[in-house]
Write a structure and sequence with these properties.
Helices cover 78% and strands 0% of the residues. The protein is mostly helical and 107 residues long.
Length: 107
Amino acid sequence: MSESADEQAGEGEITPEAAEETLNAMFDAIRQAKVSDLVLSTASTLTSVAYGKLELKELDQAKLAIDAVDALLALLAGQVEDGVLRDFTQAVTNLKLAYAAAVGPAQ
């Protein structure tokens, strides 16, 4: 026996109870998250963005991303493993060198 259109339409709807449960789960995840992990994740994302912006020659955007990562790394000192911080510091150094090469010599 086939379902009516009304019964099929109701299958994808989210009940208020399900929405509340999802929202509570999200709040629990936020409460348990370590800020240092979130900052590190943001630094990682911005590092990737900076490389992409350099490739696209969007130098103002690349510089903003590079400077943001640099600032975040200062906050992460003592909060993450030394090796992780060292790797990101090296990435920022590489980004700064690539940015300087993209900007070219001063006129």
